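**Protein fold record**
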Amino acid sequence: MARHERFRLAGVMGWPIMHSRSPRLHNRWLEIYGVEGVYVPLAIEPGNLQAALRALAPLRFSGVNLTIPHKEAALAHVDRIEPAARAIGAINCVVVEPDGSLTGHNFDSFGFIASLREAEPEWRADAGPAVVIGAGGGARAIVHGLIEQGAREVRIVNRTLERAGELRNAFGPAVTPVEWSRRAQALEGAAMLVNATSLGMVGQGALDLPLRALPRHALVADIVYAPLETGLLAEARARGNKAVDGLGMLIHQARPAFKAWFGVLPDVTPAIRAMMESTV
């Protein structure tokens, strides 16, 4: 049992924030591992982000997660930025150091890769070209993780080609920007397809992507987790492709943050997965 000399505080900052599933996950882990503390939702308007972050140390927080719209803006308000966060260009975790300074991390790429390996232990990043739909913060984290794991070609398909080009500038020649009008052709010969947009999420439009050219051995992943079975994943499974939903990424990215704040690397058990599925 992990015991601490003081009550530990952590949370998640966003605007809005009450939809976040992170409090339920972290508070369950706190209970399981006997850590005396609490993880709370923090509704922080964009203009108040700097003040909120600088209040963490005086309030004796161990740290926070960051979600929309704060991930990129937080880069300007921490004292140190870990290499992965700097490469991705966004922060999803802040750790309050013993001296009160703030260190920014990004565990989204860790969470994505861990979720793939959990669902498909034989998956290899170098098995063939990967196609990533989108060029936002989620896409940047995924591309960083894929290249770090050995991917030699990542095709970025985005409605704005210029934004896709920014990922090539950030991550190098392994990245190939693809025009939206050529999204179907981009699937030819691919070993993996990832939707890194919000398309397919509850309340959002569907992802318009014909899968005819996608090899049936390709793995299909979606960062959306509400619903668990997006239209993309349903179509992929129907045609015989293996599919990975976005809930695993959410759960796994939380593990290194929990360890940084509370000193324990939590396990992802079937019970934890079932609990989180019940919230979707």
Q: What stands out?
A: The chain has a mean pLDDT of 95. The two ends are 30 Å apart (CA to CA). The first helix runs from residue 22 to 32.
